[in-house]
From TrEMBL:
Residues 10-131 form the Glyoxalase/fosfomycin resistance/dioxygenase domain. SUPFAM superfamilies: Glyoxalase/Bleomycin resistance protein/Dihydroxybiphenyl dioxygenase. InterPro entries: Glyas_Bleomycin-R_OHBP_Dase, Glyas_Fos-R_dOase_dom, PhnB-like. PANTHER family: PROTEIN YJDN, PROTEIN YJDN-RELATED. This is Glyoxalase/fosfomycin resistance/dioxygenase domain-containing protein.
Amino acid sequence: MALLNPYLNFSGNTRDAMEFYASVFGGEVDFSTFGEMPMPGLADDDRDQIMHSQLSTPSGFTLMAADAPASMGMTASPNGTIALTGDEVDELSGFFQALAEGGRIDLPLEKAPWGDYFGQLTDKFGISWMVNIAGSGAADG
């Protein structure tokens, strides 16, 4: 079985971002720092940055992320949009509201022309999220 998992890049605030996502989605985050894995060209200031992190949620999805230390010639790559879809009204509406805290709602979670409830936001870490709740039983968020 193959899996497709979002892998986000940040510029030094991966730990904060992943702890926030764990508070939204539940689950535990595993972190590995660059200092734990000796890397050539790593500045001492970058040893505590996150080389890899992984959040496995009770809902069954996985989110991964890492920092991009400038001392290693890395830059955070542009992140796309993460889409959350399903028919669990309370769960998805809750995710939308929690992700919006400290961020910006770009399109409120409301009835879309195709009959589902849809909303889009940018969280406080600059990550864009789309939420689509299938079916007609969704409540405005």
